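Lab meeting minutes (informal)
Scribe: AK
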Amino acid sequence: MKKFIKHEYVAPWEKAFDSVLTPLDDFIHRQTTSGILLMLCAVIAIYIANSQWSETYHHILAIPFTIGIPGFQLSKTLHHWINDGLMALFFFVIGLELKREILVGELANIKLAMLPIIAAVGGMVVPVLIYVSINPEGSALQGWGVPMATDIAFAIGALALLGKRIPKNLLTFLIALAIVDDLGAVMVIAMFYTETINTSALTVAALAAIILVAFNLGGIRRSSPYILLGVVLWIAMLQSGVHATLAGIILAFTIPLRPKYNTNKFLAHINEMVVQIKSAYQQEESIVKNDEMRSRVRALGDSVLLVQAPAQIMERKMHIPTAYFIIPIFSLANAGIPIDWASFSSVITHPISVGITAGLVIGKLIGIAGFSWIAVKFGITSLPSGLNFKHIIGAALMGGIGFTMSIFIAELGFTHSPEELLMAKTGILLASVLAGFSGFIWLFFSATKLRDNSEIT
C-alpha cells in the first residue's frame, strides 16, 4: 500500500532496501548471498548430472552459438561462452577488487597487508607441493594449480554464517587473503595455462591495452570507451592463446580509481547547487513543472557521480550480476559431476582426487596457518586486534574451499582429458565440503570458548 509520511512518498518494500551499509558490510552481504546461490546451483547441477536429464544437460552445454557477421564470426559452444565469456566479466570484477585493495584497501598499507599476503603465499605454495608430491609426472601433473585457489564467495558465505561469534577482523583477513590468492591464480593461468601463442592477436591485445592506459592517463572517465575497447581486447586475447578471461583483469586495472572532484570541491559545489535549487523552488514547488529545478537536480546527480571513482562505480554495478547470475551459471555449467557409486571409492582415491583434496584441506591449513605463525613469531607482522591463532586456523580451514577458481583451472588443465577432469572436480567438491564443514565446526566451538573465557592472545 502506498503512503505519504511528512511529505515523503514511501513505496512498498522500500524500507527493506534503505539500510546503509559500509563497503565491507555490502561486500560481505553480496558474497554471502552469492555463496548460498553457489551451493544451491552446485547441488542442482550434481542432481541433474545424475538424473534422467543428464544427457539433455550435456547436450545443452554443447550447443554451438555464433555471433558476428559473415567473415568475422565467433562460434563457441554454450559451455565455452560461459567459461570464456561470462567468466571474463567475473575476472573484471576480481580485477576491480584487486586494484581497489592494492591502492586504497587492506593491501595498501604494507604493514597491515603483510599477514594476509604471507598467509596467501603459504596457502598457494604448500597445496602445490602436496599435489606435486602425489602426482609428480604425466598428464596428472597439469592439475598442480587447482588446489591453489580459494573461493571467496563460498568461504565468506560459510564464515558469515557464524555471525557475531567471530570478529569482523577475521572476515577482513580472509577477504584480503582470498584477493591475494586470486591474484596468484590469475598469474598462474597467464603463465602456465595457455595454448599455442598467436603473436598477431597478442600484438592487437597489447595495443588495445596501451590505448586503455592512455584513456586512463588522458582523463577519460566515461565507461563506454573502456567497454568498447575491452571487447576488442577480449576478442584478441581469445584468439591469442592466452586465456581470454585475463582481458577482464587487464581492463579492470585501466579503469580510473581517482574521482574528478575532491571532497572539499564537492562540498562547495553541493552547497552552491542547493542554493540554486532553493531559488528555483521559490518559483515553482513541483519539480515536474519546474524545468530549472529539474536541471539543477540533474546537475547535482552528475556531481555525485563525479565525486566517486569510475572503478568503484563499475565494481558496485557489476557485483550484483556477477554474484547473482554469472557465478551461479558457471556453477550450473561446471559442477555437474556424474557419480557412479559402484566406482566411487576408486574415484576419490585416484591420485588426482587425493592430490587436490589433500592440497586444499591439509595444504591450505598448513600453508595459511603455518606461514602466519612463522611471520608473527619472527616479528615480520602481527595479528590484528581481537584475533588469535585459533581464528587463523579456522580461516585456514575455510581457505580450503576452492570451487569456482579451482574448477576453472581444472577446466584449463584437463581440457583434453574428460576422465581426469572428472577426478579433479570430484576432488574439488569433496575438499570444499570437508574444508567448509571442518572450518565451521572449529570456529563454532573455539569462538564459543573464547567468548566465554574472554581468551584473547
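Next up, CB showed the second protein from the same session:
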Amino acid sequence: MLADDHPILRAGLRTLIDAQPDMHVVGEAGDGAEAIERAQALKPDVIIMDIAMPKMDGLEAMRRIRDLGLPCKMLALTMHAEAEYLFKVLEDGGSGYVLKQGVDSDLFEAIRTIIAGNVFLYPSATRLLLSRYLEGNTDEERDEYGKLSEREREVLKLTAEGYSSQEIADQLILSPKTIETYRSRLMQKLNLHHRSELVRFALRRGLLKANGG
C-alpha cells in the first residue's frame, strides 16, 4: 500500500512496483489518517509511508498502525537524508526508510529486505548505529541483558524489529498473551517503560539485523 500526499508520486511508485513479478499495489492513501483506515481494510504486507503528510504525518500513522497490531511491515519514504530519522522510524514501528531521491535504485531491495524480517539501513545509518552501540554498550547494560532468558531475548529482538505480538507468537509457536507476558517481564528486568526505550536498547546492543545501502 502507498501512502503519500502527492498523486503523481503515488502513480509513479505504483507503475514501478506493479512492474515487479512478485509485487502489486493493493491501495493508496493521501494522508496519515486515510493510511490508517486503508491499512485496517486492506491489511497489506507492506506499507510505503511518506513521513511528511497533511492531517497526520507518517510517523504518527505508523505508531497507530503498530498499536493496532496490524500484520504490516512499514517502510518510510522521506526527503531527509539525516540518519537520525532512522531512530524515529524504528521507534514508531517501521523497518527502515528509503530516500525519495533513491527510490529507483533502493525501493525493491528495501521491500524485500523488510519482508524477510530485516531492517533496511543506508551505510550512513549503519555507521550511526555502530557508534551508538559502542557509546551505549556499558558494563551495566551488559549485566542487564545477561539477566534475560533466551526466550526473553528472542521477544526483545523481534519486538525491536517491528513484529506484532501475534507475529512473534506465530514465529515462536506461543500465544500472543504469552508473548506479552515475556515482553512485560523483560522490560521490567531492563527497567524500560516504553517500546521506544526497548528499540534504543536493542540498537545499542547491536541486536537489529541491518541490510541495504
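CB comment: The chain has two domains: 2-120, 128-211.
No objections, moving on.
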